[in-house]
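As a warm-up, study this chain.
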Amino acid sequence: MLGTVTDILDDSAASGGLTVGAAAAHAGVTVRTLHHWDRIGLVRPSGRTSGGYRLYSAAEVARIHRVLIYRELGLSLDDIGELLDAPAADMTVPLRQQRDQLLDRISRLQGMVDAVDRMIEAASAGILLSAEEQVAIFGQRWQPSWAAGARERWGHTAQWAQYAERAASRSAEDWQQIADAIVTLESDLAAAKRAGVSPGSAAAGELAERHRASLGAYFDCTLSMQVCLGRQQAADPGFTAYYDAIEPGLGGWLRDIIDANALAQGVDPDTAVWA
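Now compare it with the structure written out below.
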């Protein structure tokens, strides 16, 4: 870069100046840009050809390149003009301010990179917790393979992308709060089943809505989606065993109250789709 600028300055000095076209080409800007900088007094050519065309001296070409450097730093043209015309001792003040702003921007960008990395990891792994952390938080019945299985089944959906975005920002403490809420819900579901709460009743509908709200911690869940998920889990031996360990037959009963609640709100469980 330095060699290139030096060559340009040498060419300018040897030729008595560069035309506006040559100066623009060497600097990588448009002629229109140099005309604008001339009008606002940022870089004014001191020479003219016999035909009246602008000629930029070596000093003026060097000034063009200083403008470009300061623009790259994010300074406005007004600030650049003040900086170029300031005494050398005063130049450090705006430059130090700009340096601080650049460091702040770097910090923000690094934070964005870290957030994107976490989203990529969450989208791939399903949850940003080790297998040991998952069991510690969700309990001994939890199977870490479920996250991978969910990604394999739903990884192509908008809901998985939404889940990954939320998972990327969650700490172990956040997951613990979610897990505690699920334990409370499952305990209430088991108690209701033992008490003989019937699918379609007001109490069962309230529990079904609490179950749907718990899914909302992962993605926005419609009634139709909840029906699909409830039926898939009730047919899955792994989930059946999980719910049976809480209360025998709980998985099938949960499917039934979900179906009844959906039907009461105008969604036919037999034709429900993932939407």
